[in-house]
Amino acid sequence: VEGGWAEDGKGESIWDWFGQQGHVHMNQTANVACDSYHKIDYDVYLLRGLQSKLYKFSISWPRIFPTGIRNSFSPQGVNYYNKLINRLLDSNIEPMVTLFHWDLPQTLQDLGGWQNESIIDTFADYADFCFATFGDRVKFWITFHEPWVISYAGYGTGQHPPGITDPGVASYKVAHSIIKAHAKAWHLYDDRYRSQQHGKVGIVLNSDWAEPKTPTSSEDVKAAERYMHFMLGWFAHPIFVNGDYPDILKSQIQQKNQQCSIPVAILPSFSEEEKSIVKGTADFFGLSHYTSRLISTAVNDTCIPAYENVVNFSQHVDPSWPQTASSWIRVVPWGLRRLLKFVSQEYTGTRIPIYIAGNGVPTEDGGDVINDTKRMDYFRLYINEALKAIKLDAVDVQTYIARSLIDGFEGPMGYSQLFGLHHVNFEDGNRQRTPKESAYFFSSVIENNGFPKELLYAHLPFLFIYPSFPSLMPCWLMLLGWIY
């Protein structure tokens, strides 16, 4: 949303480079985007109109360190975030700050990016600066937003920058570096800042819900379980369980490699010391979720490193699941409730809360962008499932964050996918913002802190208890209450 891609000395990010090389829909770029770099006061005004209690935004690493390292410090970039944070607090809106939402300084990518382990210390130094500079006012920190996307789309399929297609080696190496960088930043905050600043540090992991295509098929149930442990457990298991990758992930890769003449995937390993450093490095479980999949086993003997081949699954959709403007998002609200139950029993229990840190659906540019009734329906259904998870399943969910305040630059899709509660006219040099119907709806949800109880029990789906998923237990207790 920021724009100002080279303003006040900001360095080039890998997304700046990616867009300017023509890799985005219709050759669009984030050079100006929503121009939020010049519209802090107006965007905070929109948040006040929503009666928002919290605003999740990210710091652009190359805006404050143009070359990625501290000696390139930009005071103008720091002033921008100081102003934003102060305006939010003046409006009684809590800032939740993400340190890394994909926009790596291009100069660091030129040195190997997340494949070069030296970046772990470089990221920790960047995090240290942010904690020291903004931590007196910021009490919620996210180290990485959706590292699965960084690893899979940036280094596996190449659909995101840096555009590397190496799913068997680079994806796993990058994930390994990110996990260690996250842990180092968490310990740094814990050792140096927590006692004075009293904040919390976590990570946001994205995950679909994997539903067995044929619930009575043990092979499909196992494939769905593998899907969950490869997508979510890849990062969640080391951080929230025991400092190491899930056994199912390690054994599946080993099994696939044994079937082939050369390894199709190389999963790095943590030393015992690294395991102890990584384990328990989160004060909350940040979760983003948008859709669900039907999963079945794909019996094949191919020796290619593609993610689907290594995990040995195929994915499907139920034709009854409503389509959206996004090719990958279907409306499957009950998947969120099942995912929250899975996360609670597999990773968090009663130890730490879950923060839903990203949920929403886009509309297409060119349609009726103001009367977005389908988005309102999506929010209503998904928020209702979050309430069920809290009140029927006793899952400790403490935030729900909608994606997003305003339409923005959506990666390879550019401005063709509109996720905002407010429409941004990207043809207008002033980037005019206009509230959509969903903005008024979401404001009422915030004002009422949830829904009337009648909606809570509407559309309660039958919950199949997967024999192979020990974390999914009966969810039939009927409790009353409101979202926290």
TrEMBL record:
Gene3D superfamilies: Glycosidases. It comes from the Eukaryota. GO terms for molecular function: hydrolase activity, hydrolyzing O-glycosyl compounds. Keywords: Glycoprotein, Glycosidase, Hydrolase, Membrane, Transmembrane, Transmembrane helix. Pfam families: Glyco_hydro_1 (PF00232). The keyword Membrane applies. The chain crosses the membrane at residues 463-483. GO terms for biological process: carbohydrate metabolic process. Homodimer. PANTHER family: GLYCOSYL HYDROLASE (PTHR10353), LP05116P (PTHR10353:SF36). This is Lactase. It comes from Terrapene triunguis.
